[in-house]
Amino acid sequence: MTELRDGQEPAEVREDSCEFALSSVQAFLHGELPEATADEIRAHLLMCEKCMDNFDVEQMISAMVKRCWCTPAASDALRLRIAAVAHLGDTI
């Protein structure tokens, strides 16, 4: 890997690689990419600190959303009311 000097990116890191990595962040984080593409992005992240920082932020946001996301469940009372209404509809 090439050493970075004063915020410069190594020659191997091209702008289009950064654009591709950043545009694929959600698919990468959720395991939705083919393994070869995910490997490409992993290699890019090892070379590009700027993209790694962006991925870290996206990963943290995704983890917080996942933690806060809960599947709402109907209470037993609501289930009984719905079943009663559905049963009444069958008799009409």
From TrEMBL:
Domain Putative zinc-finger positions: 18-51
Protein name (record): Mycothiol system anti-sigma-R factor
InterPro entries listed in its UniProt record: Znf_put
Organism: Propionibacterium cyclohexanicum
